[in-house]
From TrEMBL:
Record localization: Cell membrane
Superkingdom in the source lineage: Bacteria
Transmembrane segment boundaries: 20-40, 60-77, 89-107, 113-136, 148-170, 176-196, 208-228, 240-258, 278-300, 312-329, 341-361, 367-389, 401-424, 444-463
Protein name: MFS transporter
Coiled-coil annotated spans: none
Membrane topology of this protein: Multi-pass membrane protein
Organism: Streptomyces mesophilus
Listed GO MF terms: transmembrane transporter activity
GO biological process: response to antibiotic
PROSITE patterns per UniProt: MFS (PS50850)
Length: 491
């Protein structure tokens, strides 16, 4: 269980000035990650036109990032625990800065995809390090919950602001969506060096980093997503072979972890029901969220002919989560508990996707608005509470691992959602005629809806009417977050 000794400024529930300084730096990093993804999202059609990319290749500009992010996240989270959270955060933020700039200089599709992959790897080490700094710097309970909800709200703000900024920059030139994060990264790097305090180097208990586990889990993620993506344009046998290789790599990873003296992932951590549910729900929620937005951008720009700026302003309403997460969600958590908010958010997301299913070729913006607004509300209700549930009750020395697991789930889900939505869209689009394009979008929109409904079903098992005194994977009493009386208190 994390405790107030990692940093010297622990106190009661209120955040001190030093607390806010550390939190703002880390919020800057998650804001950077959000704005980077969002700006690229609205720039995709311009990138396609300039570099001559197919729909499948265009999808890989996004998927390369989330594969690097999700594939190396577990290794990144464990590295933060083993080698120091501040050290990992600062170093990989520098790598993120460098390869963001290289992405803006790309002249061919493959060089852009490689740059995005390495940028994703950098984020895979940087993000869990930043999250674990928060979870070890703030006492578990109201103080940490407040910090995490501000953190998640800032990430949401980055995404919503990125939609508009990305449209503005793309109207000048799509390369600026890569150069702008370079400037922001440099500012955050300087602030991190100044404000994030140094902590004692983690004690080493012997052994080496589990590279075999890192390689097998990365191979599993890459191969499974590749198999899903190839399903629409390759034969059945190659697709099954790719998926089979991915599942074999996943099995090898489990065997390696079970036998390793210093595993990348201690398998006992999965004895925690809330942690497992949070990760599964996070994976499916991200799959629906990113798949839906990818399809909406293609619909607005390629079928409707909207500009990148018009698309950005149309989708900015999703950014309502940036306001709701820090202002309203903490009160809802205190009243209803995390589990009920997660379930409610997933049901709202399902409604959002369902309302968009009958999309027409001439829909007005008011017809689209309910879906976009509900999606922003859903994100606010689900994202922060998922982060809380996935990290509470976990030992301090495994906070990087817990954060790595959660963000792996998010990014693996995003990659699967993008791949599945693209595969269905390509398979259902029989020609370049507007009616055929619309049929493809309508068919693919069932992917995010199915993902959200399945996530809601899984999360429903986490809703309890009373505390259950079982034992968690950390050896302590289980904490059920369904009711306010069961919320953990600061220690």
């Amino acid at each position: 269980m994390s405790s107030p000794h990692a940093y010297p400024h622990k106190s009661a529930d209120a955040l001190s000035g030093r607390d806010w300084g550390v939190l703002l730096v880390l919020c800057g990093a998650i804001f950077l990650e959000g704005i980077d993804v969002a700006m690229l999202n609205v720039a995709l059609p311009s990138i396609r036109a300039d570099l001559g990319l197919s729909t499948g290749s265009l999808q890989w500009v996004m998927s390369a990032y989330v594969l690097g992010y999700g594939g190396f996240m577990l290794l990144g989270g464990r590295a933060a625990d083993l080698f120091g959270r501040r050290q990992m955060f600062v170093f990989w933020l520098s790598v993120f800065l460098l390869f963001s700039g290289l992405g803006g200089l790309a002249t061919e599709g493959w060089t852009l995809i490689v740059a995005r992959f390495v940028t994703g790897v950098a984020a895979a080490f940087m993000t869990p390090a930043g999250l674990s700094i928060i979870t070890t710097s703030f006492a578990e309970g109201p103080q940490r919950n407040k910090a995490l909800l501000v953190y998640s709200g800032t990430g949401a703000a980055g995404f919503s602001i990125g939609l508009v900024v990305g449209g503005l920059l793309t109207s000048v030139g799509w390369r600026w969506v890569f150069f702008a994060p370079v400037v922001l990264s440099a500012l955050i790097l300087l602030a991190a060096l100044a404000f994030v305090p140094k902590a004692p180097r983690p004690e080493r208990t012997g052994g080496s980093v589990d590279l075999a586990g890192g390689l097998t889990v990365t191979a599993a993620i890459v191969l499974i997503v590749l198999g899903v993506e190839r399903a629409s344009h390759t034969g059945l046998v190659p697709t099954l072979l790719t998926l089979g290789a991915g599942l074999a790599s996943l099995l090898a990873f489990v065997v390696i972890e079970a036998r390793s003296a210093n595993p990348l992932v201690r398998l006992g951590i999965f004895r925690s029901g809330p942690l497992v549910r949070a990760n599964l729900a996070g994976l499916l929620f991200a799959a629906g969220f990113f798949g839906f937005q990818f399809l909406v951008v293609l619909y607005l720009q390629e079928l409707r002919g909207w500009s990148t700026l018009e698309t950005s302003f149309a989708m900015i309403v999703i950014g309502i989560d940036a306001v709701l997460s820090p202002l309203l969600v903490p009160r809802l958590v205190a009243r209803f508990g995390n589990a009920r908010l997660i379930l409610g958010g997933l049901l709202v997301a399902s409604l959002s996707y369902a309302l968009f299913l009958p999309v027409g070729a001439d829909w007005t913006y008011p017809a689209m608005l309910p879906s976009l607004l509900l999606l922003g509300i859903a994100f606010a209700l689900a994202y922060g509470p998922l982060t809380i549930v996935a990290t509470e009750g976990v030992k301090e020395e495994e906070q990087g691992l817990a954060g790595g697991l959660l963000y792996t789930s998010f990014q693996f889900g995003a990659a699967l959602g993008l791949s599945a939505a693209t595969a269905v869209n390509v398979a259902a689009t029989t020609s370049s005629a507007p009616s055929a394009l619309l049929d493809g979008y309508r068919s693919a929109l069932w992917v995010p809806l199915a993902a959200a409904l399945l996530a809601a079903l899984i999360s429903a098992f986490g809703v309890r009417t009373r505390s259950i005194g079982t034992v968690t994977a950390t050896g302590g009493p289980a904490v059920d977050t369904a009711a306010p009386a069961e919320l953990p208190t600061a220690r």
